[in-house]
Task: inverse folding
C-alpha cells in the first residue's frame, strides 16, 4: 500500500518535473520584464490590424529606418494579403498603386547596361526595402560603434518579441543615481545587461537592465498618423511592435486560418476513427 | 509469431506476381494477418505514430531541400525565403521544425513504454538494440538539422557539440578539425552537415525496416509481458490494430497541428532568428529540449572528457539494458517496487532536462545561500543535475540488476486472455 502511494507520488512528481520544462531560461544578465500588451494577432483567431500596421509602417519609415535596415522585406510585401497596404482590388501586390508609390520614393543601386557604370534608379515593387547604410562599418561609424540590428525578423529574434520591442522604445528611464552610463549610451531597464560593474550603490541592489546604443527614438507626436489616431509615445511603440511582428511573420493570418480548418478536419477524423474503433472492437475484449 | 502465410492471391495478376515477387504476401502477412496481442494499450500505438513522424519529416524535408541553400552566406536568408516566398513554405518549414520535436516526444514515450513493460527482455534484445540505433541516428539527424538555418543557436550549438570531440586524448583536436572541414565551424561544416542531414533519415528508414522485421519475428510484447499462447490471446493486425493506431495517430496529429499553426516557435529558441555570427557568443547556449537531459549530464561532470564519456554513457545504458535487467518477470505491472524506481527514473530525466535549460550556477531555490561544496553551492543547478545524474546511472547500473534478484513480484497471469476476458466481465 505504501509502495503504491509512493509510486503514485513519483508519477505526479515526474509530471510536475515535465511541466516545469516550460520554465523560463535564466541568463547571467538581468532585465525588467516587459509588460504584456494585448495585440490583435494573438490567440488562435488573432490577425493583424491593418490600420495598426499602416501606423506602424509610418513609424518605421519615418523614424526606425534612419538606422535599421529591413533587408528581407520587399516593397511588394507591403501590399501582400495581411500586409499594411493590402487592397483586395490588387491581388497581385505589384499592381497596388500605394505600394508602387512607396517604392518610387526610393532610389536603388543599379548598373548602367550601356556603360557598365554603377547607376541609380527609382525602386520598383520587386526591390527590397532600402538599407540606411552601405555596410556594417558605415552603420557602426554613425552609431557610436553600435550596430542597429536588421528589423526583418527582430520580433521573432527576442523572447516575447512584440512586447519586448514596445517595452524598449517606451521604457527609457533616467539612470538611477550611482549608475555610470558612458556618453552616447542610454540606460534602459528592459535591455538585457549586467550593470554590476558600473554601479556604485548597494551591490545587492544593482539596477535591472543594461545600456543601449540607441537614443530614445520616439516621443509624443514623433509621427502624425494619417488615420487621426493620437500619436502618443505608447501608441507609436505599440504600433511599430505590431508592424515588426508582421514583418517577421507575414503569413500569420493565413497560418491561423488554415490551422482552424486543419483542426476541424482532424477532430472530425478522430471522431470517425473513434467510432470505427468502437465498432471494430465491439465483440472483442481487451 | 510469423507462422504460416494465409495470403491467397485472388486475381490473375496477383497470382502471377506472387509466384515472382511475393511482395503483396509480405504486406498481407505483416500488416493484415499479423497476430497482435489483444490487450495492447495506447502506449503500443507509438510505433505507428513514429513511422508517421518519419514520413512527415522525410516528405517535408525533401521539399525544404528544394528551396534551401547550404551556404554560410545564404542559408539564413534561404530559410526566410521559404517562409516568405515559397508557396506554403511557412507550413512546410514549421511542420519540419516542430515535427522533430513531435518525433522525439513520440520516441521518448515509445522507449519508456519499452522500459516499463520490459519489451527489451529476451527474446527481443535485437529488436531493442535496433531501436536504440534508431534513437542514436535520430539524435544525430536532429542535431545536424538544427544547424542548417544557420542562426546563432545553430552556429554555437554546432561549435559546442563538435568541440566535445576535442576532449578525446591525442586524436581529439584532429578529429574536430576533420569534422569541421577547417579550423572553425564554417561553410564546409554547413555543407557536410546538410549532406549528412539528408542522408541519415534514409539510414533511419533502413534500420526501421530491420526493427519491424525483428518485431515480426519475435512478436509484440504486451502489458502483461506474457507471451501469447493460443489464438484466444491474439487478434489480426487489420482491422484491430490498424483502427486503433489510426485513431491514436489522428489524436497525435491534433497536438502536432496545434504546435505548427499556433505555437510554431515555442519549442525553438529566439536566438536562432539572429543570423550566425562567429564573433558574438549568445548569453546562454542551449540545445533543443530533447537533448537537455544529456546536456545536463555533460555539464554535471567537472572534467570535460569525463563529462563527454558520461553523456555518451547515459545513452549506452539503454543499449546494455537487456543484460542489466535480472528480473524473471517482464512487465512492471507485476513489479510494484520496480515501478516506483521507474517513475523516479522518469523524474530524474525530467530534472536533468530542467537543469540542462538553466545556467549551472543559478540557484534552485532563489535567494538561499548555503556553502561551497567542492566547486559550487549545493543550492545550484549543477548540484541538482549531479544528484539526478547519479540516480539516472544508479537506475541502470545498480537498481535494475539488483532489484531483479531481490524484489517481491505480484502473481503473473497464465495467459493474456485471462485478465483481458476477466476485465470484460468486471
Result:
Amino acid at each position: 500500500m505504501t509502495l503504491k502511494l509512493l509510486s503514485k507520488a513519483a508519477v505526479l512528481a515526474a509530471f510536475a518535473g515535465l511541466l516545469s520544462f516550460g520554465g523560463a531560461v535564466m541568463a547571467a544578465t538581468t532585465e525588467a520584464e516587459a509588460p504584456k500588451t494585448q495585440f490583435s494577432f494573438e490567440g488562435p483567431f488573432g490577425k493583424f490590424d491593418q490600420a495598426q500596421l499602416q501606423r506602424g509602417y509610418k513609424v518605421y519609415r519615418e523614424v526606425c529606418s534612419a538606422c535599421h535596415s529591413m533587408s528581407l522585406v520587399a516593397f511588394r510585401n507591403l501590399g501582400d494579403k495581411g500586409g499594411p497596404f493590402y487592397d483586395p482590388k490588387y491581388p497581385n501586390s505589384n499592381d497596388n498603386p500605394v505600394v508602387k508609390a512607396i517604392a518610387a520614393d526610393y532610389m536603388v543601386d543599379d548598373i548602367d547596361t550601356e556603360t557598365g557604370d554603377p547607376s541609380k534608379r527609382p525602386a520598383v515593387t520587386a526591390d527590397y526595402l532600402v538599407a540606411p547604410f552601405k555596410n556594417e562599418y558605415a552603420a557602426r561609424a554613425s552609431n557610436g560603434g553600435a550596430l542597429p540590428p536588421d528589423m526583418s525578423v527582430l520580433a521573432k529574434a527576442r523572447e516575447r518579441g512584440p512586447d519586448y520591442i514596445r517595452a524598449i522604445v517606451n521604457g527609457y528611464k533616467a539612470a538611477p543615481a550611482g549608475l555610470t552610463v558612458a556618453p552616447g549610451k542610454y540606460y534602459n531597464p528592459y535591455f538585457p545587461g549586467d550593470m554590476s560593474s558600473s554601479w556604485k550603490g548597494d551591490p545587492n541592489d544593482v539596477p535591472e537592465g543594461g545600456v543601449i546604443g540607441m537614443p530614445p527614438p520616439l516621443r509624443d507626436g514623433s509621427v502624425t498618423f494619417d488615420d487621426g489616431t493620437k500619436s502618443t509615445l505608447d501608441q507609436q511603440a505599440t504600433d511599430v511592435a505590431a508592424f515588426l511582428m508582421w514583418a517577421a511573420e507575414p503569413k500569420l493570418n493565413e497560418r491561423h486560418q488554415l490551422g482552424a480548418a486543419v483542426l476541424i478536419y482532424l477532430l472530425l477524423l478522430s471522431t470517425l476513427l473513434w467510432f470505427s474503433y468502437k465498432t471494430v472492437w465491439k465483440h472483442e475484449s481487451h | 509469431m510469423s507462422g504460416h502465410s494465409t495470403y491467397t492471391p485472388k486475381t490473375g495478376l496477383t497470382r502471377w506476381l506472387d509466384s515472382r515477387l511475393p511482395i503483396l504476401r509480405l504486406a498481407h502477412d505483416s500488416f493484415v494477418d499479423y497476430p497482435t496481442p489483444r490487450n495492447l494499450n495506447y502506449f503500443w500505438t507509438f510505433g505507428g505514430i513514429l513511422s508517421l513522424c518519419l514520413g512527415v519529416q522525410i516528405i517535408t524535408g525533401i521539399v525544404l531541400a528544394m528551396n534551401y541553400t547550404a551556404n554560410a552566406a545564404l542559408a539564413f536568408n534561404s530559410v526566410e525565403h521559404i517562409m516568405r516566398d515559397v508557396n506554403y513554405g511557412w507550413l512546410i518549414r514549421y511542420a519540419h521544425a516542430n515535427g522533430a520535436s513531435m518525433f522525439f516526444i513520440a520516441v521518448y514515450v515509445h522507449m519508456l513504454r519499452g522500459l516499463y513493460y520490459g519489451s527489451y527482455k529476451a527474446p527481443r534484445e535485437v529488436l531493442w538494440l535496433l531501436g536504440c540505433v534508431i534513437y542514436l541516428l535520430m539524435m544525430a539527424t536532429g542535431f545536424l538539422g538544427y544547424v542548417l538555418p544557420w542562426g546563432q543557436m545553430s552556429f554555437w550549438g554546432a561549435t559546442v557539440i563538435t568541440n566535445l570531440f576535442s576532449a578525446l586524448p591525442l586524436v581529439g583536436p584532429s578529429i574536430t578539425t576533420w569534422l569541421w572541414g577547417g579550423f572553425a565551424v564554417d561553410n564546409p561544416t554547413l555543407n557536410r552537415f546538410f549532406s549528412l542531414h539528408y542522408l541519415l533519415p534514409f539510414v533511419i528508414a533502413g534500420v526501421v525496416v530491420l526493427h519491424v522485421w525483428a518485431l515480426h519475428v519475435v512478436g509484440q510484447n504486451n502489458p502483461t509481458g506474457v507471451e501469447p499462447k493460443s489464438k484466444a490471446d491474439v487478434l489480426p493486425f487489420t482491422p484491430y490494430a490498424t483502427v486503433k493506431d489510426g485513431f491514436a495517430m489522428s489524436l497525435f496529429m491534433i497536438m502536432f497541428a496545434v504546435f505548427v499553426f499556433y505555437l510554431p516557435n515555442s519549442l525553438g529558441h529566439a536566438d536562432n532568428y539572429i543570423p550566425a555570427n562567429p564573433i558574438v557568443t549568445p548569453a546562454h547556449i542551449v540545445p533543443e529540449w530533447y537533448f537537455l537531459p544529456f546536456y545536463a549530464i555533460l555539464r554535471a561532470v567537472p572534467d570535460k572528457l569525463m563529462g563527454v564519456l558520461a553523456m555518451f554513457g547515459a545513452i549506452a545504458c539503454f543499449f546494455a539494458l537487456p543484460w542489466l535487467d535480472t528480473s524473471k518477470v517482464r512487465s512492471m505491472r507485476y513489479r510494484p517496487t520496480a515501478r516506483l524506481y521507474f517513475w523516479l527514473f522518469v523524474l530524474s530525466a525530467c530534472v536533468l532536462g530542467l537543469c540542462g535549460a538553466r545556467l549551472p550556477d543559478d540557484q534552485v531555490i532563489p535567494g538561499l545561500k548555503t556553502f561551497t561544496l567542492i566547486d559550487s553551492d549545493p543550492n545550484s543547478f549543477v548540484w541538482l543535475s549531479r544528484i539526478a545524474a547519479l540516480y539516472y546511472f544508479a537506475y541502470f547500473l545498480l537498481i535494475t540488476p539488483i532489484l531483479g534478484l531481490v524484489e517481491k513480484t505480484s502473481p503473473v497471469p497464465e495467459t493474456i486472455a485471462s485478465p483481458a476476458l476477466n476485465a470484460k466481465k468486471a
In short: Chain A is about 35% helix and 5% strand.
